Amino acid sequence: xxxxxxxxxxxxxxxxxxxxxxxxxxxxxxxxxxxxxxxxxxxxxxxxxxxxxxxxxxxxxxxxxxxxxxxxxxxxxxxxxxxxxxxxxxxxxxxxxxxxxxxxxxxxxxxxxxxxxxxxxxxxxxxxxxxxxxxxxxxxxxxxxxxxxxxxxxxxxxxxxxxxxxxxxxxxxxxxxxxxxxxxxxxxxxxxxxxxxxxxxxxxxxxxxxxxxxxxxxxxxxxxxxxxxxxxxxxxxxxxxxxxxxxxxxxxxxxxxxxxxxxxxxxxxxxxxxxxxxxxxxxxxxxxxxxxxxxxxxxxxxxxxxxxxxxxxxxxxxxxxxxxxxxxxxxxxxxxxxxxxxxxxxxxxxxxxxxxxxxxxxxxxxxxxxxxxxxxxxxxxxxxxxxxxxxxxxxxxxxxxxxx
Length: 404
Ligand code: PLP
Fold this sequence. Notes:
404 residues, alpha/beta, Aspartate Aminotransferase, domain 1, Aspartate Aminotransferase, domain 2, 2 domains, eight-stranded mixed β-sheet, 13 helices, 15 strands, globular, binds pyridoxal-5'-phosphate
C-alpha cells in the first residue's frame, strides 16, 4: 500500500525550492555548475552577517543551553519593543512580542492561531508564497488582491476592497515586497490602514526587508497608522542582518489588543507547544537592533547590493521583449517577458528551459501566485562577475528563442 501525504497538502506548493530547484540540484550532482538566482540567502554570496552578531552567539552559547520563555528571551523582546518605539508603533508591551525560528515559523503560527475552515485572508498577488500556503494549511482561504505593475507594483486598492467579504478576517501586506521589490507609498499604506479599520480586519504586515531600501525610498510601517485595528508586524535577522541560517525572527502585536485577548491566548498556546525559538540566536537580537546598521552601507548607491541591483536591472531592460519595474527595496527583480516575442509557452517553460540549456536557475512568477504567467523572479546576490555571466546566458537563451 502506498503511503499518501495528507490531503491538506494537496495544491500546496513552494516553488522557490520546488521541482525546478530539485532539477538544478540533479544537474549539479552531474557536475554542471548552475548559477543559482533563486533564493534570497545573502551570506553564501559574501554578504556576511555583521561580526558582532556572530560574536554574540559564540559568547553566549554556554548560556543558551536551556529552553527560554516561549515568547522569547526578555532581552531580545525588550530590544524589539525598543525598536517599535523608535519606529513610532504605539501600545506595544513586552508580552506582545514573540520570537520565532525565523519569520517563517511565525507566519504559520499567526495563521494557525486565527483561522477556522473557510475564513478568508487577503494576500497580495504576487506574494511571498509561504503566506498563501500557511493560510491554506491552517484551513483558511487565501484570496489574492492584485498588485499593479503599472503603479510600481503598489496594491490595487479597488481590487482589494472588492474582495472583502463577511468571511474576511485579515489583510496581508508585504512591504518592502518580495518578489516585486516595491516599497509602498505612504498614501497607499494609509488607505490600507483605513480599509482594515472600516471593515474590522486584522493587518499582517511582513516587513522583513524594512532596512533594505534603495534610491531614497522610505518605508512606512503600517502599525504606526492604526488605532482601532489589530496589527501584527513581522521582522527578523535573515535579510537586514544577512543571518538567514541562524533562524531568528519576531512578531509584534499592536493596536486594538483589547479585542484580541483570545487570539493572543491562541498565539501563546502555539508558541508554548513548540517550547521556544532557538536560544543562541535570540542572544544576538539585541545587538542586531541597536547601534550601527551595516546594511545601510550596502544599499547606498556605492554599496555592493545597490550596484548589483542596478547591474541586473540595466542588463534586463536592455533586452528587447523584457521589461521591469526598478526595485525600491528587498533583494529581487520581477521582470516581465513579452511572450509574443519568444518561442516558449509561459514562465514555467522559460524557467525550465533556461535551467536545462544554460544552467541558470530563477523562479517563475506563477510560483508567487501571480495571476499572469509571464514573469520571473531573479535574485541579485552573487558577485557582479557571476551576475554578468548569468545575464550573458539569459541573453543567449532569449536570442535562441526569439521569434521576431
Ligand atoms: N517573509 C518574506 C517576505 C520573505 O521573503 C522571507 C524569506 O525569503 C521570509 C518571510 C522568511 O524569512 P525567515 O528567514 O525569517 O524565515
